[in-house]
Amino acid sequence: xxxxxxxxxxxxxxxxxxxxxxxxxxxxxxxxxxxxxxxxxxxxxxxxxxxxxxxxxxxxxxxxxxxxxxxxxxxxxxxxxxxxxxxxxxxxxxxxxxxxxxxxxxxxxxxxxxxxxxxxxxxxxxxxxxxxxxxxxxxxxxxxxxxxxxxxxxxxxxxxxxxxxxxxxxxxxxxxxxxxxxxxxxxxxxxxxxxxxxxxxxxxxxxxxxxxxxxxxxxxxxxxxxxxxxxxxxxxxxxxxxxxxxxxxxxxxxxxxxxxxxxxxxxxxxxxxxxxxxxxxxxxxxxxxxxxxxxxxxxxxxxxxxxxxxxxxxxxxxxxxxxxxxxxxxxxxxxxxxxxxxxxxxxxxxxxx
Length: 353
Hints:
Blueprint: E1 2-9, E2 13-20, E3 25-32, H1 37-52, E4 57-64, H2 68-75, E5 79-80, H3 83-94, E6 100-104, E7 109-115, E8 118-125, H4 133-143, H5 150-155, H6 168-180, H7 185-204, E9 214-217, H8 224-234, E10 238-239, H9 247-263, E11 279-286, E12 293-300, E13 303-308, H10 316-321, H11 327-330, H12 336-351
Parallel strand pairs: 1-4, 4-5, 6-9, 9-10
Antiparallel strand pairs: 1-2, 2-3, 6-7, 7-8, 11-12, 12-13
């Protein structure tokens, strides 16, 4: 079976998706990263290998997510892309006419605006926890309710309670106050879903028009209470795709398929044997100039296989030249425009502009 692998490594989860030559999703794996992206990638690949057996012929690999460069070096990726591109490609694959993508993960949230299948604009929020899945997890734990049942409670609500959702601290304090006043738990949870949606829209939309079709993806898309809150707030239908929780990985796989088709090249994939290697990550400061860059060094079996983090490319370029995945995958310089846009989004979220 000829397949393409897509790997999405985030702060909360690491996802691996397998697609065939017809772009159908064959299998997927969802792993908790738990602060160890290398081990999570190895575990995800091992799960895929055990599911599908020896008949796999990997002909392309793509990586995305916050640890995409590290993962690209480890596995031998053919393409390394930012998560905005990967999520947009996956959404367009399942809903070709999509115009707006909501993506809410464990630690950050994104909105993507597409026009004719092309990303026209996007927004990111990685500083306010009130608009992310981790906040819902925290509140579910405090209330003693499994997060899987959170949405069901919200849908049973008859009247949603107004919860302050501007900040996690205020939201939790307000929830406790509403509980003390005797409001039913269902109404409080529905109010929390509404507050999270208001926070998301206020922080990310910023005057831009949310047009249909709308696709909602990321781990929080499993919460039917949040989906219902979006539809109430916008008075528009929100679509949740079948593979909502691994869409970034699917997008990376589709991008790898596109890259291999365009270049007609052989994949750089290092094989499933990498799941048995022991990797070590360390860092050091380069003081050769005023930038004082923190350089990340990844080594395996006693020898360094990649370095990055330096602005001038002194270390990352030399690592890339000796690695078979190419300089464009080892050094994150190719995504400067994306990174600058992300920094602008983070700064504006902090100062309220």
